[in-house]
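pls ignore typos typing on phone
GTA + seq
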Amino acid sequence: MALLFKDPNKISAYRDRRFQGSQDEFEHALLTSATVYVGNMSFYTTEEQAYELFSRAGEIKKIVMGLDKNTKTPCGFCFIMYYSREDTEDAVKYISGTILDDRPIRVDFDWGFQEGRQWGRGRSGGQVRDEYRTDYDPGRGGYGKLVQKE
Ligand code: GTA
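k done
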């Protein structure tokens, strides 16, 4: 395991506020799970495209696309579940920052997929970050949802 991944403070800047457990349990899950979160995806990127790219790091068990909870359409993130932890680390190391559908994607360690986590948690149905964005992003529905409502 690379040194970087032994430091729980460096393993992920993200803290899931819906994780039911202690900080220690959260960090342990991040250090051992075989799941990654992929962010900054285009709404138009398909599961097949994600499969093609992420299978370069190892054999994939399952992909879960992130969906807008109102429209049930992709809203720019997904979870990739590998069989092996090593492949998970390779995905973070080598695929994060690469371009998928003209966008630099972000690959983050994840504590593990559970039913319900596929839905955007923003009030408008998509991801929270797309509520507050003020820039125009054609791959993610244009302006942020709050700007669109003004
Ligand atoms: N492993 O980085 C991640 C990650 N993110 C961003 C989401 N998920 C992640 N998992 C990992 N790493 O299952 C997962 C969630 C959930 C699903 C959808 O994706 O665990 P979400 O994006 O809709 O909601 O989640 P989440 O994660 O609960 O949102 P959060 O943490 O409040 O905010 C995410 C980002 O939105 C912040 O980092 C910030 O950039 C922006 N943001 C939040 N609130 C504000 C605000 N008030 N003003 C401006 N920006 C804000």
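The chain has a mean pLDDT of 94. Residues 85-95 form the longest helix (11 residues). more later
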